[in-house]
From TrEMBL:
<dbReference type="InterPro" id="IPR031756">
    <property type="entry name" value="BGBP_N"/>
</dbReference>
<dbReference type="InterPro" id="IPR043030">
    <property type="entry name" value="BGBP_N_sf"/>
</dbReference>
<dbReference type="GO" id="GO:0030246">
    <property type="term" value="F:carbohydrate binding"/>
</dbReference>
<dbReference type="Pfam" id="PF15886">
    <property type="entry name" value="CBM39"/>
</dbReference>
<protein>
    <submittedName>
        <fullName>CBM39 domain-containing protein</fullName>
    </submittedName>
</protein>
Length: 286
């Protein structure tokens, strides 16, 4: 009798396992997986500084994203835990497939350091994203009342188009060199210039060879930067990113010009000038 029960028990166990496997293949285990991260993917955030005052930013709505917000600080002081937020806004309104935020009163100038945290809402959870930096350049400043990209009238240049313009169109290359010479003259007036740049990225650990490979891969994936990949000499850890050295100052300025639409590569000299590479220290602990 006991043997019969034992056999029956094993049969029941096998049948139960087969049933669970069958249901799992049908997606039952998805019930156990958390959906809290769905709807928190963010496209690149575009910035526009309004002249004489004001700031506008926007991002394309990703699937399942219900709300978009920002906590932005202008020239934050390193190590200060309590610093008033200069632009703290959020919205659930979608215009032409984008979330728009605008502050009419804030004053932003060329050369200012913007540190910001993006906040997303998927209707169930709210997520604060990794802090990021942006150095305000002249090309971000627009006369007030004019939008840089009215919907349906302007098609942004793709990386391929940018590369073709710079490396195949003599007029575009001349314009690029003129901008570089202007930057050189300004840098000489400031008295500081190095061969270092800063790549904002979530991955900052690992041997130096791995870090250099990450930077090289970033360049290889962008047509406009690919011809300058050979200029990268070394890389090292930096808070929230990688500090890397290029062969010469002209290459550095070319990279800054070609990469400024991405907002990922920053001028290391401007960051170190204010002694603030650890941007996380400027925000309250969560």
């Amino acid at each position: 009798m006991m043997r019969q029960c034992s056999v029956t028990s094993r049969v029941c166990t096998v049948l139960l396992c087969l049933a669970v496997i069958g249901v799992a293949e049908g997606g039952f285990l998805d019930w156990f997986r958390s959906n809290k991260n769905k709807g928190h993917d963010v496209c690149r955030v575009e910035f526009e500084v309004l002249d004489p005052q004001g700031l506008r930013l926007w991002t394309t709505q990703k699937p399942q994203m219900k709300g978009f917000g920002v906590e932005l600080f202008i020239n934050p002081v390193h190590g200060r835990k309590q610093q008033p937020c200069n632009v703290c806004r959020n919205t659930t309104e979608i215009t032409h497939g984008k979330f728009f935020l605008q502050d009419e009163s804030v004053i932003v100038k060329s050369g200012d350091i913007l540190e910001y945290v993006i906040i997303t809402d998927n209707g169930k959870t709210v997520q604060r994203h990794k802090p990021r930096k942006l150095i305000v350049d002249d090309f971000l400043i627009k006369p007030k009342g004019r939008c840089a990209c009215p919907p349906g009238t302007v098609t942004p240049a793709t990386p391929t188009q940018t590369a073709q313009q710079v490396y195949e169109d003599p007029t575009a290359e001349i314009a690029l060199l003129e901008r570089i010479l202007e930057r050189v003259s300004k840098k000489c007036a400031e008295g500081t210039m190095s061969n270092y740049l800063f790549l904002q990225t979530d991955r900052v650990d690992g041997p130096a060879d791995d870090l250099k490979k990450i930077v090289l891969n970033y360049f290889q994936q962008r047509d406009a930067l690919k011809p300058l990949a050979g200029s990268i000499l070394s890389a090292e850890d930096g808070s929230d990113g990688i500090v890397f050295r290029v062969a010469n100052i002209i290459d550095k300025l070319k990279i800054l010009e070609l990469a400024r639409q991405e907002n990922d590569i920053l001028d290391y000299d401007k960051l170190t000038a204010i002694g603030d590479m650890d941007i996380r220290a400027s925000f309250d602990d969560e």
